[in-house]
Amino acid sequence: MSCQFGNGHVKTTFSFLKITISVHIRTGTPDDMPAVLELIRELAVFEREPDAVVVTVDDLVRDGFSDSPLFHTFVAEENGTITGMALYYFRYSTWKGKTLHLEDLIVRESQRGSGAGSALYAAVIQQGKREGVRRIEWAVLDWNTPAITFYEKSGARVFSDWRVAQMDEEGIRAFCERTERLRHEVEKTSDNQ
């Protein structure tokens, strides 16, 4: 795979696919966030979680474009319309140091197969190289076999022995309530002794 950036366009050659793609890829801006949110919602439907998205355009603008942004985006554009996006952020690995996490990469269903997804993927990897990261990581659903095949052909390793762990807002609330109750019980016990 080779990546070339210039004037907002990315020309990407994927030797393992024997194709060359020319797509307009650029860094996302606050004005792009309504389209990015539409893509996030489309991804949630694709991933069979249509009601899971609670983030708003205001959240995206605040969190992605402050003095200390929590994420960055690339967008794919065709005729002035955003057709895809990649959202990523930096993490720190105790083993590797600075890493990059690709949170989401989505192309509108009507544009899939256009090469926009491959170009966004290449843009993220090239960004990681420029930033000097030692690893780029992301999650892929085990039933998304076309994506798994693509990633493996590109040189990525897809691990089957790691599990993703998450705690949602309800889990966080319940955990904190339990630990607070336990703390009070311990304090009462020590006061009675």
Write a brief caption for the model.
This protein has 193 residues and is an alpha+beta fold. It has five helices and seven strands; from the N terminus they run βββααβββαβαα.
Strand content: 25-35%
Number of helical stretches of at least 4 residues: 5
State the separation between the terminal residues, measured CA to CA.
69 Å
Radius of gyration: 20 Å
By secondary-structure content and strand pairing, the structural class works out as: alpha+beta
> Total number of β-strand segments?
7
Note the run of SSEs as H and E.
Answer: EEEHHEEEHEHH
**Any idea what the shape is?**
elongated
Major beta sheet, strand line-up: 1-2-3-4-5-6-7
Average pLDDT: 89
Relative helix content: 25-40%
Features:
seven-stranded mixed β-sheet; alpha+beta; 5 helices; 193 residues
List the helices and strands and how they pair.
Blueprint: E1 2-6, E2 9-14, E3 19-27, H1 33-46, H2 57-64, E4 72-78, E5 81-93, E6 97-107, H3 116-131, E7 136-137, H4 145-154, H5 169-192
Parallel strand pairs: 6-7
Antiparallel strand pairs: 1-2, 2-3, 3-4, 4-5, 5-6
Helix pairs in contact: 1-2
Mind explaining what this structure looks like?
- With 193 residues, the chain is α+β, with helices and mostly antiparallel strands.
- 37% of the residues lie in helices and 27% in strands.
- It contains five helices and seven strands.
- A seven-stranded mixed sheet has the order 1-2-3-4-5-6-7.
- Strand 5 and strand 6 form a beta hairpin.
- It is elongated, with a radius of gyration of 20 Å.
